[in-house]
Amino acid sequence: MRFSKITAMGLALACMLMLAACSQAQQSSQQSSQQQASPEPEKVSLGENTPITVSFDGQAAAAGYFPAAGDSIAVIAPSALPSQEQVDAVVEGLKNWGYVPVEGKHVVQADRTLADCVEDLTWALEDPAIKAIFCVRGGYGVSEVADALPADLIAKANKPIIGYSDITVLHSAWTSAGLPSLHACMSATFGSDFSKECAEVERRALAGEAPTYTCEGSGIDKAGSAEGTLIGGNLSTFTSVLGTAYDCSKVDGPFILFLEDIGEDVQHVHRYLAVLKHLGVLDRASGIVFGEWIDVPTDMDDYDGGSRGGTFASVNDMIVRQYVPDLNCPVAFNFPSGHGENVNYPLFMGCRAQLDVTDAGYTLKWDFGGSNS
């Protein structure tokens, strides 16, 4: 009799647990369906469509620094792991440009370690047969690689690196070492959807030819002229190098600051710029160029400008109202460089640049006669 009661109680308990599990599964299914049905948050992008004219007036880096036809170029991925397709695109693209691409040992190794990434970059720097370093993609984590490099290795190598986004860390390290580098698109350069003009400008820039960019004004630019070493890159990544051994904002002499980003909302952009302001980077800049802001969420959450004189119309509007009034330098907006899917014009970082901003537009060019090259 006792056994029967226990059995009955067990059956009842089992039924209750089954009902609870079914209910929980149903709720999870409903939540999943609701999440799948939820529309993607609205996002906007700025800078990709800025009308631009590119010309070349003979300015070129010192002979021997940037690679020449037939030179070997290392293909590495010091940041996030790329796909084989991305690596293949870079290899074939560099071959078509007349170079000899040489892949690192750990470029697409799925189980690679930090030591592997350091090994590839160290090899690319130390091998005298390698004349430049082309990164396959950005992502995250290159700061750890930079931290592991010997302090004088970059300067001793005396060769350029090419990339953008997380590679901003290495641009800063190169500038700190007194060397030029090329802020430019990576594997996407060789894709069918990428701007043919951008790709051609990058091809010429990789050979050391400096373009002159003339851009249509945004209507919110701040007029003036500035000269100085071009520094910066991806805003969120650049902020992370401040105060490190490879902080390029400590470069001797005046500097022009370039900033762009992707996926950051207005609040985050404000926060990063606040750091630059508090550390004096914005005030020390002789000129500022804001590039592409890509996939900026339109939902500004609790920092929408409502308590700052009216809702912000865009990330540019926030910058104009919150930062530009305190700046005593020319400021240009919407330069078509950064994370735009099809447009990313190359920039010579660590080189002396000249920025001229008028009400009608602005020009950005380089003076290699006074560059670090």
Structure summarized in a few sentences:
The chain is an alpha/beta fold and 373 residues long. It contains 11 helices and 15 strands.
Describe the structure.
With 373 residues, this protein is of the alpha/beta class. It has one domain (43-370): Rossmann fold (3-Layer(aba) Sandwich). The chain has 11 helices and 15 strands. The strands form 2 sheets. Strands 1, 2, 8, 9, 10, 11, 12, 14 and 15 form a 9-stranded mixed sheet that branches. Helix 3 packs across helix 4 (142-148). The longest helix is centred in the N-terminal third of the chain and has 36 residues, at 2-37.
Total domains, how many? 1
Low-pLDDT runs: 1-23
CATH architecture: 3-Layer(aba) Sandwich
Q: What is the SS-derived class?
A: alpha/beta
Helicity level? 25-40%
Q: How would you name the CATH homologous superfamily?
A: Murein tetrapeptidase LD-carboxypeptidase, N-terminal domain
- How many beta-strand runs? 15
The major sheet is characterized as:
9 strands, mixed
Shape verdict: globular
> What is the number of helical segments per DSSP (H or I, 4+ residues)?
11
H-E string: HEEEHEHEHHEHEHEEHEHHEHEEEE
Distance between the termini: 95 Å
CATH topology term: Rossmann fold
Alpha-carbon Rg, integer? 25 Å
Strand content is 15-25%
The first-level CATH class is given as: Alpha Beta
Topology:
Elements: H1 2-37, E1 43-46, E2 52-60, E3 72-76, H2 84-96, E4 100-103, H3 114-126, E5 130-135, H4 142-148, H5 153-157, E6 161-163, H6 168-176, E7 181-183, H7 196-206, E8 209-216, E9 224-234, H8 235-241, E10 255-262, H9 266-278, H10 281-284, E11 287-297, H11 315-322, E12 331-332, E13 347-349, E14 352-357, E15 361-366
Helix pairs in contact: 3-4
